[in-house]
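task queued by scheduler; priority normal; single chain, no ligands, no partner chains; default sampling; output format set to structure tokens
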Amino acid sequence: MCICLLAGASRLIAQQSSGSATVSRPVVPQEGIFLVFPFENVGARPRLDWIGEGLEELSIQRLSVSGQQVYSHEGRLDEMDRYGLPSGAKLSRATMLHIAEEMDADYVVFGNFTSDGKNITVNARILRVSPVGLLPEIKESGPLASLMDLHASLVWKLLRNCDHAYPLKLAEFSKLQQPLSLGAFEQYIRGLLANDDESRLRDLKEAARLEPDWPEPAFAIGEVYFQRNDCTAAIPWFAKVPATHARRVEAIFATGVCWLRLGKPDKAEEVFNALEEDMHRNLLTGADLPEILNNLALAQARQENFPPALTALGRARDIDPDEDDYPFNLGLLALAQKDLVTAGTHFSEAVEREPDNPEDLAFLIYTLDKLGKKSEVTAQKRAAEEAFGEKGLPLLRIDAKKEDSFAKYQRVKRELDITSLRLELEGPQVAQSSAADTAIPANGAVAHIRRGRQEFRGGRLDAAEQEFRAALVEEPNNASAHKELAEIYRRRGKLDDAAHELQLSLEERDSAAVRTMLARVYLEQKKYDQARAEAEKAIKLAPNYPEAKELLDHLEKSKPTGGGK
């Protein structure tokens, strides 16, 4: 899934320590969730192609700073990758609309520009998702050197297109924005587009030198070092991201991961504990994030503080019942405490969740062997050979006498999947204004679906189901509501009901993601022929959709037939 900027959360977190900072902030409504695409270069100067990506990134930042929910550049790329679309593909309005529907966005921002190297003209439009509508074009022209001011005016006019009663004047809107030089911005964008780390770091550091108070280059530099596993270099750059910045939560999370990598679990525990408390204090539903809980638990376990570690990991496992890392880590903690029976239960659950992970199965076999269950060991080894080949299982190097023998196998979550938070992260404007003042209605199918997803994320399935059913009362043919209701049924083991809801969703809107969900339901029902058929249809819709390809590959390897009757 796609990543959405944590603008609202980071601002709310900042309010805890700086309440006065929000007093003078203008109260503005949230217009909805925005999805921004790169602006097309319709001129004849390829060397200015960076401006297209730059206008996308600048639009994301300025919408976010002004209190709007907006998908990140990475979020858009992730969704396009699901459908096999190249990052630089020229997309039709219909394709952009389809992507926006899948991402549950309200507005699509797109446009083009032309420049002779001295002057520039930028055209931008908003495509409203529901009801579908193309809003009037906005055009701004001026010297290339004035691009930053020109763009601020452009975004302000786009927001006024969405809401003619938008309360901020241009001067007020501009005061919210980070003052930037064009030179620093160009270096930053070129750094993001660079093909190798050295070029990327060179350009990003130059941007940071030109604009030392601009957080974006600092976060990007920290990410480069983080991906290179150079945590000593990454941590100081992440520390430069202020509490009010949209990427602050991600920077804090990465810092916690770094402390784990550097063998300082006490510092990691402090970071993840604070982050978990902030999430509870500042999000509308007080949601837990399984990635934070997982890493917090591992930090505690490495200090032999097992009771809270087991509680946190158990919560992570319950929140995300499809992820095998959490029961796997629970199994490792049980082994560390010499509780073989419990470890076997956890590893068995991990294998059930992810049959294609050989390490899960290797640890299950190891545990069964220690328990003396020879017949089960033989059966599992036979299954492993069929699934992974004669030498497909990893060789486990375990010395139970050493304290860190199992710790080296622990699965630390390296990235924070914040997709699920995108409907919870409301900016301070929403907290200060009534529902009647916002552009998103308190009722209606869209509002019910969003509240339902919040409840679902918090593990409150009854409340989530109630919201999705309310959405279907408002719009009986709403494809998203049927899909979400299907996921609740699947979690509860009501597979026939789940399949029915997915079929209703597909009747309204064909989707590779929904067909893949339906294929998984059929697989759980052992309807292999039907599962294979749906996976094939998903791939026909989206030839490079990885989840569909992986599922079809799994079905081809298992090769059961005749189960679709």
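post-processing summary
- The first helix runs from residue 7 to 17.
- Strands lie at 33-36, 40-41, 69-70, 107-115, 119-128, 133-134, 138-143.
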